UniProtKB/TrEMBL annotation:
Protein name, per record: ATP-grasp domain-containing protein
Record lineage: Bacteria, Bacillati, Actinomycetota, Actinomycetes, Micrococcales
Keyword Nucleotide-binding assigned: yes
Location of the ATP-grasp domain: 45-280
One example GO MF annotation: metal ion binding
Length: 636
């Protein structure tokens, strides 16, 4: 029994040289032997967005079938599982004037929510996946006028494209065309192309080349190069605005079952050769002397699936053993494993190696440190459970590192005067460099911290049976509150003098961030461009969950928010609000220009002593707001 690539198979791994052998051995093992990559649509979206590419906007997401609520979605949408790479359980829907009734565009009929849920339940029960979630996402419009845009499927081998399949969805038979790795059309005859199709199911057709063919293939190559696996099929859509990501499929049924498409032995050998070259490339890049099959197989067998699943869902996409490449992190308060109590806050420390294993104490305050195997930065958070429908979440700003005692939990004293459950998040990005004062939860090059902490907020809210999370931050904490809040259904974020578009921030601070976190980029400009989905609220908000809202308060005379560093104007203009006076956005967010007094020699960028008046105003808990704004502030 030898490790081979992404799984374990019997026999000599060297004997597997054809694509069909490789893909069938990958798909024939139990799911718990799959590596830290799987067919999860949310994982795929997050990975691709990290690379700067567009995917369909998620309108709502649901952890369980019984949570599914699609009432009130105003645009045509797709309802589908995150765990399936087939069309089973996928609905193309739009609302009707009847409550609980939707129009199914694919089958041209009305469906009640009960009918829809019955189909989804059957799909869920027939699936072997443990982590079953569902999403409603925007309907992508293709360059054609068809209901479903053409699928462009790339058979990708770590930067090389071996085959492209273009599918036009029609009834009673889909039309397909095949191209080589440079988008050159393959001949129609099976003898020349190496491909036969079942004419009862598919029609081989001379479909026109996609409008954005060159952009599509370059996008597929870049995504494939970033994905630590020798093979993945990358499904893209061609739209009037350019390519949009669809999904990853690691064990595609195309050619696998030979019921629709059949691949010749010659083509199977050709693609198999690309697969083995990709494995060698992965090996050479990371471990030189080890065979990629041994390396990936050992990691696959040695990583608990629950840990893998959570690491993926929280933004860790590393497959290789990255311990040698992981950034060194500084010691912090409580980092030693024998420390069992946080002396500063007088609470016990509870340690875990997987977020999925964390059990929140619903009775007593505690600090939680989660050190996951594939995430070099710990998740570090402090929880005060209360009997409340809300969780109030505090996020911190800049820390003067010569005196800072990390981790920093912001607003603890003032929040303790309120009645909500409390959660405080520490930015472990700062642990990568003793000179780094600001991190904005950027994480590491390979691990995005913001979505990992979004999972923490979800976990705490669910554990405490709360109905809503309210995230609060000042300056950098304001950036993080809006960013994380955009990923949490029904949340409210409050930002006071927060940053928004980090490329407009202090150049030397951005250089520090590049040197400490993103050293793989050559310049600050290339860092901003590559990681815009982490460093620009305009980009982050373009993918926000439906129903998330925020209130952004800016001091009119603060140069670090309004003029010299135009954070408020940059976001206001993007959202269609007058940056000089503020107002309400179309989504119902508050952009408020106001003034508040500060102590002598205290900059106006600082809080007016406390953040509580802003919370009271946004939650409708005060009858007046003394800092002078005409904008209606309440978000409840």
């Amino acid at each position: 029994m030898l490790s081979r690539g992404l799984h374990v198979v019997d026999g000599d791994p060297g004997s597997y040289s054809e694509y069909l052998d490789l893909i069938r051995s990958r798909g024939s093992i139990p799911l718990d032997l799959l590596p830290p990559i799987k067919d999860d649509k949310l994982v795929g979206k997050r990975f691709v967005e990290e690379l700067g590419f567009r995917s369909a906007r998620i309108l709502r997401q649901f952890e369980r079938i019984e949570d599914i609520d699609i009432e009130g979605i105003s645009e045509p949408f797709v309802l589908k599982p995150t765990f399936s790479s087939s069309n089973h359980g996928v609905f193309l829907l739009r609302g009707t004037e009847k409550s609980g009734v939707f129009w199914d565009d694919q089958h041209q009929c009305e469906r009640s929510i009960a009918e829809i849920l019955q189909v989804l339940t059957q799909r869920s029960e027939s699936s072997q996946y443990e982590d079953k979630r569902w999403i409603a996402e925007e309907r992508i419009r293709g360059t054609n006028d068809d209901l479903v845009p053409h699928d462009v499927k790339f058979f990708a081998f770590h930067g090389q494209i071996g085959l492209v399949q273009l599918t036009e969805h029609r009834r009673p038979r889909n039309r397909v065309a095949f191209f080589d790795g440079e988008f050159r059309r393959l001949p129609f005859t099976p003898e020349e192309s190496g491909i036969r199709v079942n004419p009862a199911i598919l029609e081989l057709h001379e479909l026109p080349l996609p409008v954005h063919a060159s952009e599509l293939i370059e996008m597929a190559k870049e995504i494939s190069s970033a994905m630590p696996t020798p093979f993945v099929r990358i499904d893209l859509y061609d739209t009037p605005d350019g390519p949009v990501f669809g999904e990853f499929t690691f064990t595609p049924g195309t050619f696998y079952y030979e019921d629709r498409e059949v691949m010749s032995a010659a083509l199977s050998k050709q693609l198999g050769s690309l697969w083995l070259q990709a494995e060698t490339s992965l090996c050479d890049r990371d471990r030189g002397s080890h065979s990629a099959r041994e390396l990936l197989g050992v990691l696959s067998a040695g990583t608990p699936r629950r840990q893998v699943s959570v690491a993926l869902r929280t933004g860790s996409f590393a497959l290789e053993d990255r311990s040698a490449m992981a950034p060194e992190i500084s010691a912090f308060r409580g980092s030693a494993s024998d420390v069992v109590r946080d002396a500063m806050h007088d609470v016990p420390i509870r340690r875990f190696t997987s977020l999925s294993d964390v059990e929140i104490d619903t009775e007593s305050p505690a600090r939680y440190i989660v050190s996951e195997r594939h995430d070099p930065l710990p998740l570090d958070f402090l929880v005060y459970p209360r009997d409340s429908d809300r969780v109030l979440v505090g996020l911190h700003g800049a820390e003067f590192r010569k005196t800072a005692d990390l981790p920093k939990f912001q607003f603890v004293r003032s929040f303790l005067t309120r009645s909500e459950s409390l959660l405080f998040l520490a930015d472990s990005t700062l642990l990568q460099n003793d000179q780094l004062n600001l991190g904005w939860m950027a994480g590491t090059e390979g691990n995005h911290l913001l979505p990992r902490y979004a999972r923490v907020v979800d976990l705490v809210q669910d554990s405490l049976a709360a109905k809503q999370s309210v995230l609060v931050g000042h300056s950098a904490g304001g950036f993080m509150s809006i960013a994380i809040g955009s990923m949490i259904a029904g949340s409210i974020a409050i930002s006071v003098n927060g940053q928004t578009v980090l490329e407009k921030y202090e150049p030397w601070t951005l250089r520090q961030l590049r040197d400490a976190v993103f050293s793989g980029t050559e310049t600050v400009e290339s860092m901003i461009e590559r990681y815009r989905s982490r460093l620009d609220l305009r980009e982050i908000l373009s993918n926000r969950l439906e129903g998330t809202r925020f209130a952004y308060f800016a001091h009119a005379e603060d140069p670090n928010t309004m003029t010299r560093l135009p954070m408020f104007p940059a976001l206001a203009e993007y959202l269609g609000v007058d940056p000089s006076v503020g107002g309400r956005t179309e989504a119902g967010d508050v952009m408020s220009v106001c003034r508040w007094p500060t102590a002598e020699n205290v900059p106006v960028h600082a809080l007016p002593g406390t953040v509580l008046p802003f919370i009271d105003a946004v939650l409708g808990q005060s009858t007046s707001f003394e800092f002078g704004t005409t904008t209606r502030l309440s978000l409840v």
